[in-house]
Structure formats: C-alpha cells, structure tokens
Design brief:
The complex is a heterodimer of chains A (620) and B (513).
Chain A (H helix, E strand, L loop, with lengths): L3 H16 L7 H24 L8 E11 L2 E9 L1 H24 L6 H20 L3 H19 L6 H32 L4 H8 L4 H18 L7 H5 L5 H10 L4 H8 L1 H5 L2 H24 L3 H21 L5 H28 L17 H15 L5 H16 L1 H26 L16 H24 L2 H9 L10 H23 L14 H7 L4 H46 L7 H24 L1
Antiparallel strand pairs in A: 1-2
Helix pairs in contact in A: 1-2, 1-4, 2-3, 2-4, 3-4, 3-10, 3-15, 3-19, 4-5, 5-6, 5-10, 6-8, 8-11, 8-13, 10-15, 11-14, 13-14, 13-18, 13-22, 14-15, 14-18, 15-16, 15-17, 15-19, 15-20, 16-18, 16-19, 17-18, 17-19, 18-21
Chain B lengths: L15 H19 L2 H28 L4 E3 L4 E3 L1 H21 L22 H9 L6 H14 L6 H19 L6 H33 L4 H9 L6 H18 L7 H8 L2 H26 L4 H24 L4 H22 L2 H25 L2 E3 L2 E2 L9 H4 L1 H15 L5 H15 L3 H27 L8 E2 L4 H19 L2 H8 L6
Antiparallel strand pairs in B: 1-2, 3-4, 3-5
Helix pairs in contact in B: 1-2, 1-5, 2-3, 3-5, 3-11, 3-14, 3-19, 5-6, 5-11, 6-7, 6-11, 7-8, 7-9, 7-10, 9-11, 10-13, 11-13, 11-14, 12-13, 12-18, 13-14, 13-17, 13-18, 14-16, 14-17, 14-19, 14-20, 16-18, 16-19, 17-18, 17-19
The chains are: A mainly alpha (620), B mainly alpha (513).
Chain lengths: 620, 513
C-alpha cells in the first residue's frame, strides 16, 4: 500500500504527459485527485504507525532489484519511519492544497495540463527522496525534484528571464549534486554500503576523518538543494516560476531537502564535529544573508524568497547543533512549511488581484480589498516572526534556546536574525496591506476565487495552531527521537529569561518596520540615495557578481582555451586518423573486385595462410 | 547371426522444433502442388507462422523443463546453449517472416519476383506482375532454411553439421536470386553466393574427412577422446580442423572469407537480407562455438594464433572498409563482418563467460540486424529502395519515428550503453580479456571506435543534414513489418536496460557432448 504514495502522483504525471491534449479537460482534476489520494494514503500510514509502539514504527519494503554488480547491491527499497512520514504528510498535504489552489491560479493558462503533470511529477519524486532507504535511491528523488523544479521555474519559458532562471537553478544544483555523488561514492568506498541502516551501523566504527569528508560532501549537496551560502543565488531567481510552484517547491518542500539529508545522516555528523561546525557556520551565514536581502526587496516574491533562504539557514544551523537540534530543525521545517506556503499563496492571491504586479511599492491598503488574503497572510506573518502562540514561536524559540546552549555567539546571531526577520516581515505586511493605496489606475484589487482562498485558509490554520499541535499533541520530540536522536540541551537559558528577551527583540524589529513603512509614505519608485547595505541587499548581497567573477569568467576563459586545444590538437589528431582510415579503406576496397574468381582465390590464399600459421606455431 | 537390429530409441520431444519446421516445409511443398494459386499465400503464411510458433513453444518448454540431452543417436546435442540458439533462430525467423510477408512496401507485391523462372525484363515477367502473381514457393524454401539452421548449431558430428549446412544454405542461395527489383544484381549475388558457398562446403567436408581419418569417427565426443590420446598432434588433425574452420568462418563472414558478404547483402531482397544477416550469423556462430569449445577444445593452444589473426583481420577489414561505403546495405554488410570479428573474440576466450557472452551478443545482434534492414526496406525513391547513404539526409525531419528507430539500431550496433549492443560487446570483450586476449581486446575497442564513425555518420545525415536532390519517402508498411520492427526495437532497448534475466539464464549453461 505504501508504494501508492509514490505511485499515485507518478500515475498522474504519466497520464497527463502521455495522454496529451486528450486530458486537457480533466487533467488538472485528475492530478489533484492523485495528490489527495497520496495524502490519504499518507494519513492512513500515519495513523497505523501512530498506534504502534516506537520500536515497530519503522518499516522497510523492497520493490525490486535495481543495481546488482558484485558487492554493490542496491535494491529499489523504501523506508517509512517517523521522520519520513512527517515529510510525506507535509509534501502531500501542502502539495494537495497547492494543487487545489493552482486549479484557480492557472485557470487561464494554455499549458495548464503540463503544469499539473509537472506538479505531480514533483510530488512523486519528492516522496521517493524521503522514502528511499538508501542514498542512491535518495539521489534519484533528489534529481527528480531538481528536474521538476527546473521545468517549473522555466514554465513560462517564453520569458527570457524565466528560461535563464531555470538554467541557473539547474547549473547551481549540479554543483551541489557533485557533493551528493561524492558522498555516495565515499560511503561505498569506506563502508561498502549505501543504505541508511548500513551507513549508520558502519558510522559507529568509522574514523572521524572519513565521517568529516562525507559530512562535508553531504553539506555541499544540502547547500545546492537548499540554497545555502555559497550556492544560494538560484533561489531568488527561481521566483520566475508560477507562484504555486514557489510555494510548494521553493518554500515548503524541496528546498528543505538539505535539512532532511543532514538530519537523516545524523550518525555521520555526530562523530564529525568539524563537519557539524561547518554546517552551523553555513547555516548562520545564510540565515543572516537571507534576512538582510529580505529587508531590501520590493518584489513581494523575492522578499519571501529571501525569507525562505534565511529560515532554511536557521534549520541548517539547528541540524548542525547535533542531537540537541535535529528535532527542532525538523519541527521548524514543518511549521515553516505551513506558514511560508501560506504566505506565498497569499502573495499569489495579491498578484492575482493586482494584474500580476509583484512590486510592493504599487500595493498598499489592500487589507480592505482582500480580507481573506489579509487575514491568512497576517497569521503567517505572526507565525514567522514568532509571536506566541502561533506556529513559528514554538519552533524558533526552541532553536534559539539550543543555539545559546551550543555557543553564546550562535545564540546571539539567531536572536539578531529573529529581529531582522520581524523587521522585513513587518515591512512586507505594511507595504502590502497597510498605508495608502498606491495602485496603478487600471488596477481593481479583488479577492481571489474559493479554490484559492480555501487552501490559504487551511494553511493559515496550520500557521496558527500547527506549532502547538506538533509539540503538545503529536509530541514531536519523542516521536522523532528514535530516528534522529534527542538530547536535552545543557546550560540552556531559562525560558523565563529567553522568551521575554526574544519577544523584545522581535517587537523592536517589528516596531522599526512599522514606523518606517506604515506611518510614513512609501514612494512608488524605489529611492536611489540609500545606504550601502541597502544597495548591496537589493543586489542579493552581490551573490551573482561573486559567482561571475570567481567562477563564470575564469570558467569562460578555461572553456575558450580548451576549445582552442580541442580544435587544434584533438581535432587535428582525430581528423588525421580519420583521413588515414579513409585512405586505407579506399585502398582495401579495391580487393572487392566483384569477381567470384578473385574471391575464391582470396579464400584459397586465406586457407594457405592459416595453414602456414598453424605450421609455424607447431614448429616454434 | 542376428539379422534383427535394435531400433534406436529416439526422443522426439527434444527434436520437436526441428521436426515441426521441416515437416511444415514439406507440407508447404505439397501446398504449392495442390492448393489453388489464390489461396496459397494465406495457407503458406498460416503454416509458416504456425510452425515457427509451435517450434518456439517446444524450445521454451524444453528450456523451462531442462529437457536436454543427446538426440537422434548422438548426432544432435540439444543442450542449454543449443536450445538458446534455436530460440534465437526461431525468433529471428518469425520477425524475418514478417518482413518477407510484407506486401505494402512495393506497389507490385512482395519483395520477390512474381515468377523466378521468367527472365528479368521479359514480357512474361510484366505479364505475371500484372496478374499480381506471387512466388509462394519462398515459404517452403524459407522453412527448409530455418530447419537447417535449427540443426546446424546442435549438430554433434561433422556429417550432421555438413548436412545441416547444406539444408540451410541451398534455399538461401535460391531466395537471394529472386528479388523483384534489380533482379540481375540479385541473380549475380545469388550465383556468387552459391559458387563460393559450395567452395567453402568443400573445405568443411574435406576437413571432416581428414578428422575422420585421424579419429576414426566423425562424432565430436570421439574426436575429443582421440585428441586426448594423441599428444603429438597428428598432421591430419591440424589440417582437418583448420579446413573445418575455413568452412565455418566462411559462413560467419570472417576475413579473408568474407568477400561474398557485401555483394550478397546488397543483391538479395532486403527483407531476406534481414533474416539471413541475423539467423545465418546466429546458426553459424552457434556451430563454430560448439566445434571450437567441444570438438576441438583440446586444440585450443594450437588454433589460438590462427583465430587471433583472423579476428584481428576481420575486425579491421569490416570497420575500415566499412568507412568507405556509400551504399547503406554494403555498409551494413561490412558492419556484419566487423561484428563477426568481435564475436570471434568470444570463441578465442575459451571460457564459460566467453560462451555466455557470445550467446548474448548473438541474441542482441539478431534483433539489431533485423531492425536495421527492416528499416532500410522502408526508405524508397521513385525507382525502388533508396540505398544510397546520401539519400538518408534529412530523414529525421520527415519521419522522426523511423529515423529514431534507425538511430536506435545503429547505436546498438555501435555498442552505445543502454542498448543491447553494449551489453553484448562488454560481455564478450571481458571474457576475451580474461581468456588472455588483452591485445585483441584493445584492437577490438579501436575497431569499435572506427565502426562508430560510420554508424553515427548515418545518424548525423538523418538528423543534422539538409536533404539534397531527389526526395525519398518512407513507406508506411502493413502490420507485418510494423510488428516486426516493434519487436526488434523493444528487444534492443530491454536487452540494453535490463540484460540481467538473460545473462542469468546463460550463466550456468554449457555445451554437453
């Protein structure tokens, strides 16, 4: 039954892609049904698992033999445990909502069928990623979601910017993929196996050096997929894709795969403190970078993308903390899935009402025109900045707490980040929904249709109560503990001190944002005379410029010189050989005279030659 | 004196495929004699396909029940490899028969002359063409040939081997001369094939006689025993085995006994070339493998240098001369010579992996050959088949499906991974390397690279070159050819992507004697 989790959306993608135009009329309903079906299977599996004692919850099943070469045995086998079921529910749950939302959002798009088939493809690939019981099959899902992401970013490929963004995402992700393939190879070389169970077992006896290298390779992979520094640059451009895609793939699910990968590989990281430190550093840098970028973006989707980068940085930071952090990283990942997807859908709804304008400087005072969007976005806002009792508060607070216990410096960084987050989210909220109306004349904002608002409302419930549900009802700490391990942090600051301090920082950030963007007029054109930091943040902190200077131009130079060598040396040798072969051929073909008599003569000569050879061999 | 002989016990079950096909051939002759002309084709088709399917069923049941052993008083050795080869031959024959049965490609009828007895270009011929007559005798001839092929690789003594060789070859000589179009070329090819084939048969027969002189028996088992008792290597033995090899190497198209191949492949009706190129190669290599591994296995060290020379020569001539060809059928003929060279590596390997690798190679090669020639038969210009390489330019734009399938088969012939050709080549090369033929393997890889040039050239022509001059068209064939080509293409992909089940089947099988 569990294979249906993958099978249903895969079937949907296959039917829509192979069925062609015949499925245009009902394809999107079919795809949505497949996604919901997969979600229901997920719920059934979850309730079954919930009833079992902790040690029986993890199940494995093998679909078929896959690669069987000598001692390298990799079956297509899956593992459904407490960690993967959480992801399955997130992917199929949020995925289904976004399918429903897209029915409304993509209603007038000529390629709607293709869009839904890619969405289904994404869902199935993502579930392969989280259900695989070995790193190689995980790689298949990893590439599958990469493909779906590429196709969907470039979905409006008639726009050059979308096509470029898709290509960029593809190329940057390849860099990360080198990490994953290296990790898989290292595992096979050192442990002789690539299954999670096998690697975990072998990790107990592995040297710290081995674990460090594997850990760093996995971190590189996570950086690519999860848009972490220094491979972060593709995510902001990925906003060229349709908004539901941004919500599902580039906020809630795919970009969190890096967090999953590191949490899944916890046994490796637990014995490699250097790799863990690298994870924490990368996470912290991205956390702050994303937040700073978020403060300067006028494009609502890019602002949210910066925020996504930043929040995933926080999760990566948390998984780098070791057993004290894994659980909370996953916890934050789940709550983030709710509120970020909700806000992206909200942004899509705003754009829908504003003629696809994404510039927040053209918004303002939308709270009356779009009540439902305002309310749901607002709940997401409260959740992300961490106001109790909304979802983000519970998860973020725990991460800040364990960060302090790990190192005061990291703790302070997380606290600063929380303040900046509150600032840019308040800015976004204020510029969009408050202040004065700065709309273009021909724009008449209106609320979106029900297919769009209902998913937003459901996600808003998640933003509001998801944190409490996961913490108090599902008891996520003890739920995940058998898979990723859990230790209570020592020397953690007391909640009685930490919560007020955090809330004060958040309130300060929010107040700053409010004063600057709600109480003063927002110019319709972005002012040019701004501080250096703002200019830098608008330019994505020069991520692209660095890439171009460090990788692209030397790379171009290298390719040019290689092409020169190829033309002159390699082609010369190849053409020379080809010419030689052609010359020999034209001489040899003369033997083919067409006369049966000369053929027969050739046979006799041949027979004589082999007789002579045999005689010579005997004599020697 | 007891005049009563004990009747030999004969296991008919194990010989079922052979008996069914030969019986159907005899039945086909009777049909030609008694059935009215207008019904003959349909009856012959039922008999042909029916008998091939029944025979294939027999092979499959014998394989799954592991029903193996010596048959017909030790003259046949129906073992694992033998059954596999019979299966491959039957499948090739089925697909080949589908191509032969095609009537939609040529507006005048099938690929064969309406009456082979009418002179080409004569009034009689146009009269028969007008009447829409078909030469339905091709079907019994075809079945006789298949019957011979079924015996050839399982023959367990040199006399049976010789008889099978003739039963399989004689009908092919006739069939090759009966092309509807360009019949003079076809007749010339048939005559060359016949004369040279007879010449090579003489080698085989003379070699067998010498071996009889050496061992006092023509049965493989007895020859093995005799070789074991003669450490000094009698001259009769050496000369006899070399002559036997000459006869067999002629059939597989190895240099320097290859020269008939391009002429015959080009002259014969393309549908027949498809069948012949696939099934003859399988049958002949089957026999060659059995003779080399079983009967003359003890001579391995004496024969290896000869085989090395022949393998090297065959690979180089096949690939190098293939580069210079401008006719697609001649090019594919040289490609078949090159493949014969690669397959001889499997003979040289002289280990179980060499045997199983060669068998896999043959299976893969049969399908790709059927596929390539099947597609060649579809591309036409005003005067008939368009065989000039230049005429394939731009085909990818006009008929992407056909050009795509052709590209698939060519890539498989070139041995590109994920096609059946790669798996086969890899298996044979690896086995030969293990068998100590590393220098030859290097040569084979180089030859593969040269061969890839002319395969890929066709793909480049089809997809990346603008067509020039006369328009060619791709004929949409009837179900027969469509099904045949689909089988070939599917098998090529499946054997490339999931070769393991077949490899497993082959891994634990070896010749018995």
């Amino acid at each position: 039954m569990h294979s249906l989790l993958i099978g249903l959306p895969l079937l949907g993608a296959a039917v829509l892609l192979l069925g062609g135009k015949r499925t245009n009329a009902w394809g999107h309903y079919f795809a949505t049904a497949m996604s919901i079906g997969s979600f229901l299977v997920g719920v059934a599996s979850f309730s079954e698992m919930f009833g079992l004692p902790a040690e029986e919850r993890s199940i494995e099943w093998t679909l078929t033999e896959w690669i069987s070469v000598g001692s390298f045995q990799v079956p297509i086998a899956f593992q459904l445990d407490q960690l993967s079921i959480a992801f399955v529910l997130l992917i199929t749950g949020v995925g289904s909502l976004i399918h429903v939302y897209s029915i409304g959002y993509m209603e007038h798009d000529a390629n709607r069928r293709k869009f839904f088939s890619y969405l289904n493809l994404f869902v199935s690939a993502m579930i392969v990623l989280v259900l695989a019981n070995n790193y190689l099959l995980l790689y298949v899902g990893w590439e599958g979601v990469g493909l779906a992401s590429y196709l969907l970013i470039g979905f409006w490929q008639h726009k050059p910017s979308a096509a470029t963004a898709a290509k960029k995402a593809f190329v940057v992700n390849r860099v990360g993929d080198i990490g994953l393939s290296l990790a898989v190879m290292l595992m096979f070389a050192f442990f002789g196996t690539v299954t999670f169970a096998g690697v975990n077992e072998a990790a107990d006896n592995a040297s710290e050096q081995t674990a460090t290298w594997i850990g760093l390779a996995l971190l590189l992979a996570a950086c690519g997929k999860s848009a972490q520094f220094p491979l972060q640059s593709w995510l902001l451009d990925a906003m060229e894709g349709p908004t539901p895609v941004s919500a599902l793939i580039h906020a809630a699910t795919m970009v969190t795969a890096g967090v999953y990968l590191i949490a899944r590989s916890n046994e490796i990281y637990n014995i490699a403190p250097t790799a863990q430190l690298a994870v924490v550093i990368i996470g912290s840098i991205t956390y702050l970078m994303g937040a700073v970028i978020g403060t300067a973006k006028d494009d609502i989707k890019k602002g949210l993308a910066g925020s996504t980068m930043s929040q995933i940085g926080l999760m990566i930071l948390a998984v780098g903390l070791g057993p004290i952090g894994y659980v909370f990283a996953i916890f934050h990942l789940l709550t983030h899935g709710f509120f970020k997807a909700g806000m992206f859908l909200g942004a899509g709804s705003v754009m829908h009402g504003m003629h696809d304008d994404v510039n927040m400087r053209h918004y303002g005072a939308l709270r009356t025109a779009m009540k439902i969007t305002y309310a749901t976005f607002g709940l997401g806002f409260l959740a992300i900045i961490g106001i109790p009792p909304f979802a983000g508060f519970w998860s973020k607070d725990e991460i800040i707490k364990v960060a302090f216990s790990y190192s005061p410096l990291v703790g302070v960084l997380t606290l600063v980040g929380a303040g900046v987050t509150a600032f840019y989210m308040t800015r976004m909220m204020a510029m969009t929904f408050f202040g004065t109306a700065r709309w273009d004349d021909d724009v008449h904002p209106h609320e979106s249709p029900k297919t769009m608002t209902i998913p937003m409302i459901i996600l808003a419930f998640g933003s509001a109560f998801g944190g409490m549900l996961l913490l108090f009802v599902a008891d996520i700490e003890s739920w995940l503990e058998p898979v990723v391990g859990f230790e209570h942090a020592h020397h953690a600051p007391d909640n009685a001190i930490l919560i007020p301090v955090t809330l004060a920082v958040v309130a300060a950030g929010a107040a700053l944002g409010w004063i600057q963007y709600a109480t003063r007029d927002v110019p319709r054109v972005a002012p040019a005379d701004v501080s250096f930091l703002t200019t830098a943040a608008r330019a994505d902190l020069y991520g692209d410029a660095v890439n171009e200077a460090v990788f692209m131009r030397p790379g171009q130079y290298l390719t040019r010189s290689l092409v020169y060598v190829d033309n002159k040396v390699v082609d010369g040798a190849v053409n020379g050989t080809a010419g030689f072969v052609g010359l020999v051929a034209s001489q040899l073909r003369r033997l083919q005279t067409g006369y049966a008599r000369s053929y027969a003569l050739m046979m006799v000569l041949g027979a004589l030659v082999i007789l002579a050879t045999a005689v010579l061999v005997r004599m020697s | 004196m007891n005049l009563l002989m004990d009747a030999p016990v004969i296991d008919y079950g194990i010989m079922q495929p052979i008996l069914v096909v030969l019986g159907a051939a005899v039945l086909g002759v009777l049909i030609e004699a008694f059935a009215p002309r207008e019904n003959r084709r349909n009856i012959q088709l039922v008999v042909t396909f029916g008998s091939l399917l029944i025979a294939l069923y027999g092979v499959v049941t014998n394989t799954s029940e592991k029903h193996v052993g010596l048959g017909a008083v030790n003259s046949l050795s129906i073992d694992g490899p033998g059954l596999f080869l019979q299966g491959v031959i039957l499948v090739s024959a089925l697909v080949g028969a589908m191509f032969l049965a095609e009537r939609d490609i040529d507006v005048q009828g099938d690929a064969f002359a309406p009456q082979a007895s009418a002179l080409p270009g004569s009034e009689d011929e146009s009269e028969f063409t007008l009447r829409g007559w078909l030469q339905t005798e091709i079907w019994p001839l075809f079945l006789f040939s298949v019957g011979g092929m079924l015996i050839f690789p399982v023959a367990n003594d040199f006399l049976t081997l010789f008889v099978a060789l003739e039963v399989m070859s004689l009908p092919l000589y006739l069939l090759a001369g009966m092309a509807r179009r360009r019949r003079l070329l076809s007749q010339e090819a048939a005559l060359k094939y016949f004369v040279l084939g007879a010449f090579s048969s003489a080698f085989l027969l003379y070699g067998s006689a010498l071996l009889y002189g050496f061992a006092g028996s023509v049965t493989y088992g007895d020859i093995v025993t005799a070789i074991g008792q003669d450490p000094g290597r009698n001259g009769l033995l050496i000369v006899g085995s070399l002559f036997v090899f000459v006869g067999l190497l002629f059939k597989v198209g190895a240099a320097p006994f290859h020269q008939w191949t391009p002429d015959v492949y080009q002259g014969a009706p393309t549908a027949l070339t498809a069948f012949m190129g696939a099934a003859t190669k399988v049958a002949a290599f089957g026999a060659l493998l059995r003779v080399a591994y079983v009967a003359l296995g003890g001579l391995r060290w004496d024969l290896a240098p000869v085989l090395w020379v022949i393998a090297g020569l065959t690979m180089l001539i096949g690939t190098v001369v293939g580069v210079a060809q401008s006719d697609i059928k001649r090019m594919l003929a040289y490609s078949s010579i090159a493949h014969a060279g690669f397959l001889i590596l499997g003979v040289i390997a002289a280990n179980p992996a060499g045997l199983s690798g060669s068998l896999f190679y043959l299976l893969a090669y049969a399908f790709t050959t059927l596929g390539t020639f099947g597609i060649v038969s579809l591309v036409h210009d005003a005067s008939g088949e368009a065989n000039n390489l230049g005429q394939f330019a731009g085909l990818g734009k006009r008929s992407p499906l056909v050009a795509g399938a052709f590209a698939l088969f060519l890539l498989a012939l070139a041995g590109i991974p994920l096609t059946s050709g790669f798996t086969g080549k890899f298996a044979v090369f690896a086995a030969a390397y293990e068998g100590g033929a590393a220098p030859l393997v290097v040569l084979a890889v180089i030859a593969s690279a040269i061969a890839a040039f002319f395969y890929v050239r066709v793909i480049v022509l089809m997809f990346f070159t603008e067509p020039q001059g006369e328009e060619v068209s791709v004929i949409v064939p009837s179900m027969f050819t469509q099904v045949g080509l689909s089988i070939a293409a599917t098998a090529t992909v499946i054997l490339g992507v999931m070769p393991q089940p077949v490899l497993d089947l082959l891994n634990n099988t070896f010749f018995i004697r």
